[in-house]
Amino acid sequence: MEHAVAMCGHEAINSLEIRLPWVISSAWQAVLNKTPLEFENSKDIYAQLKEQAEEVLGASLTRRIKSFVEDRNLSSLVIRNCPRDHDTPPTPYSGVLSPKSTPIACLVSLSLHSLLAINPVVYRGENNGRLFRHVIPSRVSSKHKSSHGSRLRFSYHVDNPDLPLSSEPVTDISCCPEYLSFFGMRCDPKISITLVAVDAVVAALPTETLQALSQPIFEIRRPESFGDDKRSTPNLPNLVRGHNGEWLCRFDAENTYAMNQRAQQALDRLRALVESRQFDEPHLLLPGDFMIFKNQRVLHARDGFEPYNDGADRWLLRLFAVNDLNRVKLARKDHLYEVLS
Fold it and tell me: Which of the ends of the chain has fewer CB neighbours closer than 10 A, N or C?
């Protein structure tokens, strides 16, 4: 399948969608069924998972998948019909579940990250150091605007936007995640992931607004997913030029605040533009679907919904990743994933 570009009347997200044939998905499933999920020897596991994936997928599919990272014009990748766990447990409303309860889903996600040559990380203070975050309607967080919320709309945002973007230097904290991936565990056809291309929004902004959003006149606060960590970082721009001249973004509709009148006017215009929903590109993930997008190049959102609380609610597995481990600060020397934030 060629690049699938969803048109919404403006510049759209350049998205690559791949559907695995049954024979390839089944062969990969058979291999993963015999692969132990062990985190103690992660470097060895990544190499093994990469080799397995390359062998099963073949050279042509492997090249197309790798193009997602290599092609800076591509913003998202969806791979459908991946192997999945046949004995999927009930939706874990606590947000806590051992990876060994869903080994195939975890192995597919790690395999594809390894194939893309990107590095999974978890940020200290979020998700209690667990690499995989369960995107579920938590019974105790239904009114939170986070991946564990449900009843309130989780509006347009970049994840962990207070951290340095890809073109900004890092000091004592790690960089902002460059990738965010989801693996479909359980689907609700009424709930999709909405993506918005940063370039489309930038192209629609007046020059004076774009200039203001590029100035360090905004304060970014930590998302609700960090719990009691209420840190805020002043003097940050919302838009930054990347090394290749592309626009990078740290806008978070729930956690961005203006530091002066000029900033407030620009922020109000940006909010009104994205909330017009003219740039929305909804994506529905089915069980066994893998999606990954470039976190600083794409805003994402989710509409509110009423969970059933019957064990069969929507459930995705989320992973963060970065290109270069030199731009993260390990929380502990013996921990390969958890990084300071």
Answer: N
Distance separating alpha carbons of residues 118 and 120, to the nearest angstrom? 7
Q: Please give the Cα distance from 4 to 18 (Å, whole number).
A: 9
Q: How many CB atoms lie within 10 A of CB 80?
A: 17
Q: For the segment 195-245, what is each residue's pLDDT rounded down to a tens digit?
A: 999 999 999 999 999 999 999 999 999 887 787 777 999 999 999 999 889
In angstroms, the Cα distances linking 7 to 12, 127, 301 are 5, 35, 18
Residues 247-301: pLDDT tens digits? 999 999 999 999 999 999 999 999 999 999 999 999 999 999 999 999 999 999 9
Distance set, CA 336 to CA 40, 245, 271, 333, 340 (Å): 9, 32, 37, 8, 12
* Alpha-carbon 241 to chain mean position: 20
Measured between alpha carbons, how far is 310 from 93 in angstroms, rounded to an integer? 10
- H/E element, 78: strand 76-80
CA angle 247, 196, 318 (to 5 degrees): 100
**The pTM of the whole model exceeds 0.70:** yes
Q: Tens digit of pLDDT for each residue in 125-178?
A: 899 889 999 999 987 766 676 777 677 888 999 999 999 999 999 999 999 999
Distance CA 256, CA 76 (A): 24
Helix/strand/coil for 279: coil
DSSP bridge pairs for 3: 16
What tokens were used for 192?
């999709």
Helix (H) or strand (E) holding 154: strand 154-157
CA 78 to each of CA 25, 29, 112, 273, 323: distance values in angstroms, whole numbers, following the listed order: 15, 18, 11, 27, 19
Q: Count CB atoms within 10 A of the CB of residue 302.
A: 20
